[in-house]
Amino acid sequence: MGAWPDLTEYHEAVQHPQKAFADPGLKAVTLELDRFGMPKPATGGNAVVYKAKEPGGFLSFKKTWAIRCFLRPISDHAERYDAISKHLRKVRLPYDVNFQFLKQGIQIRSTWFPIVKMQWADGDLMHIHIEKHLRYPASLAALREKWVTLVRHLEAAQVAHGDLQHGNILVRGGSIQLVDYDGMWVPALRGRNATETGHRAYQHPERGGQDYGQEIDRFSALVIYLSLAALERDATLWERFHTGDNLIFVREDFLQLGRSAIWQQLGRIGSAQIDQLAAAVAAMVQRRPMKVSNLDSVLQNLASFKFPTSIPASTPAQRTPPASKSPAVQGDRAAGAMPSWMKRSGYRDHSDD
């Protein structure tokens, strides 16, 4: 195999689907174009994604795909995707989308490189859904309960997503879907290292590549649950602590337990449940990443968690101010946003954080 393709080479290749792709369906696709009439990419540190539609027949619907092209090689990615695909077909969870790893995916310089062909998932990203429902605590409560069910099902199916965060969670019609399976763990991958370590605002601050197993979702699942519970009771947290690339926590908050502003504000809510959940998150920060308890266990034992009284002092957390919301972005949100790793604007890859 020759040198790995760069973004420019992918961009040139996809303009000619008939020649670029080996998959018969992809040979006939029409790619989403930008305002200059060129294929519109969503770029990140690890991959570039194109949105493509297959032509529909008389008795068939048009299928829309996300074509994910890798910007760097992962030596065993074929084995990983094969293991993930087989396991997901076996457990048949309602939260994933159809995808195929195509080893002979795209041809560049007369050489074939792998791609992932994934069903395009529509819906609101989790943070957009929350923003739309800030004035409706019952809706946030319903989402929180659905979140508990999803996490429980993942655990029971021995699946760990690896990067649970707002940009990989879609909410549509009351249901939740997960996208982006690059960092997923299934039992057949036991003993390997992670290919990425997830979004900083959701992950245990000590998680590294060696932390890869059933337990890797547990910290982020708890962070999301606490965020939803807190916003149900105090919607003003959103304006104060949502940066556009998180819910209400940032990584520095996990390094500044009890000291950064979010902990102080959570204490002012005056809710025993929020106090206990905050204490649970603090307790899990003080454990090793692979020793974090699962969400059901935490919720069943909430009363046992007390916020630690002795925490080493360190530099106060610094927050990035919320990104300005342009009319174009607001329009995208109103129409139903796509996953953040599929968007051109605002996309950021977190695997190297």
Topology, pairings included?
Elements: H1 7-13, H2 17-20, H3 24-27, E1 30-31, E2 41-43, E3 47-53, E4 64-70, H4 77-91, E5 99-108, E6 111-119, E7 124-125, H5 126-132, H6 137-156, E8 169-172, E9 175-178, H7 218-233, H8 236-241, H9 251-255, H10 261-268, H11 272-285, H12 295-300, H13 327-335
Antiparallel strand pairs: 1-3, 2-3, 3-4, 4-6, 5-6, 7-8, 8-9
Keywords for this entry:
Transferase(Phosphotransferase), domain 1; globular; 14% strand; 34% helix; 9 strands; 13 helices; 2 domains; six-stranded antiparallel sheet; 353 residues; disordered C terminus; alpha+beta; three-stranded antiparallel sheet; single chain; Phosphorylase Kinase, domain 1
Word description of this protein:
- The chain has helices at 7-13, 17-20, 24-27, 77-91, 126-132, 137-156, 218-233, 236-241, 251-255, 261-268, 272-285, 295-300, 327-335, and strands at residues 30-31, 41-43, 47-53, 64-70, 99-108, 111-119, 124-125, 169-172, 175-178.
- The chain contains 13 helices and 9 strands.
- With 353 residues, it is an alpha+beta fold.
- It folds into 2 domains: 10-119, Phosphorylase Kinase, domain 1 (2-Layer Sandwich); 124-340, Transferase(Phosphotransferase) domain 1 (Transferase(Phosphotransferase), domain 1), CATH 1.10.510.
- The strands form 2 sheets. Strands 1, 2, 3, 4, 5 and 6 form a 6-stranded antiparallel sheet that branches. A 3-stranded antiparallel sheet has the order 7-8-9.
